[in-house]
Write a structure and sequence with these properties.
Shape: globular
Strand order of the largest sheet: 3-4-5-6-7-8-9-10
Number of strands: 10
Strand content: 15-25%
CATH superfamily: NADP-dependent oxidoreductase domain
Largest sheet: 8 strands, parallel
Bound molecules: adenosine-2'-5'-diphosphate
Length: about 270
């Protein structure tokens, strides 16, 4: 699939990204090289994934200009505050070996081990640091991840720049309608991580049956679903045939089948 989503600052982002969560540093070089070789131009990593070094190395050594690759990384969930954010950003660009990022996200509104904690003030301070980096031209777009409506609202009410992205877990059965609506209203692009429900939906009999009908694999159906819902899928794989397959999603899901998929229960709940 080709084409871009456009942020509210007019920066464009390729419609499918290569996710690297859970790809260890020693496999990241090969996986990212395979992705680039097979036409992915959008790579998603994070300081917390501990693979930025080899993600960066793969991009650097591949025959592609820096401006032709869209690189996203993330501020660790536990890192809140203005100076802390500037320091983490520097660590990330050093790891990656780049002098700017295309997109930088607050990884989560709360530290992973304190899920749900109110970190509003810390998020606002981090966001202000990200606005500064953005205004200095060190980041082309800024956003958040795992934010709920109330977390987004706090940024919108207290800061200058509305996030360009919210990256959330999104897959068949986990539609997050209210959040999707809110993001649409504010021109925030929704990126779908775990579009295959980390693999758990691939063996679902209804998904298999529907995929057969379109002559695609379950993974392709699930990735296409994200696009039909105007979210940006970030599938992850370390296998080349899957990496290739996950990008070949140029088909339409019928309204009737979309309706059926929208009615799914969350398999991971
Ligand atoms: P692997 O990396 O071994 O290929 P998600 O993107 O929702 O996080 O799901 C990722 C999981 O799905 C990984 O376990 C990955 O395994 C697997 N996976 C990714 N693409 C495919 C595919 N096309 N067919 C089957 N499994 C896939």
């Amino acid at each position: 699939i080709k084409g871009n989503f456009v942020f509210h600052n007019n920066v464009e982002i390729p419609k499918i990204g290569f996710g690297t969560w859970q790809i260890p540093n020693d496999e990241a070089y090969d996986s990212v090289t395979m992705a680039l070789k097979n036409g992915y131009t959008h790579i998603d990593t994070a300081l917390a994934y501990k693979n930025e070094e080899n993600v960066g190395k793969a991009i650097k050594e591949f025959d592609i200009a820096r401006e032709d690759v869209f690189i996203t990384s993330k501020l660790p969930a536990q890192t809140k505050g203005f100076d802390e954010t500037l320091a983490a950003f520097n660590e990330t660009i050093t790891n990656l070996g780049v002098d700017y990022l295309d997109l930088y996200l607050i990884h989560a509104p709360w530290p992973w081990d304190e899920k749900g904690k109110d970190c509003t003030e810390g998020n606002i301070q981090s966001w202000k640091a990200m606005e500064q980096l953005y205004n200095e031209g060190k980041i082309r777009a800024i956003g958040v991840s795992n934010f709920e409506v109330k977390d987004l609202q706090a940024i919108i009410d207290n800061c200058d720049i509305i996030p360009m992205v919210n990256q959330i877990p999104f897959y068949v059965g986990r539609d997050q309608e209210e959040l999707l609506e809110f993001c649409k209203k504010h021109n925030i692009v929704v990126e779908a991580y775990s579009p295959l429900a980390t693999g758990e939906l691939l063996d679902h009999s209804d998904i298999k049956k529907m995929a057969e009908k379109y002559d695609v694999t379950p993974a392709q159906l699930l990735i296409r679903y994200c696009l039909e819902r105007e979210t940006l899928p970030l599938p992850k794989s370390t296998h080349e045939e899957r990496i290739i397959q996950n990008k070949q999603v140029d088909f339409k899901i019928s309204d009737e089948d979309l309706k059926e998929l929208k009615g799914f229960e969350d398999i991971r709940k």
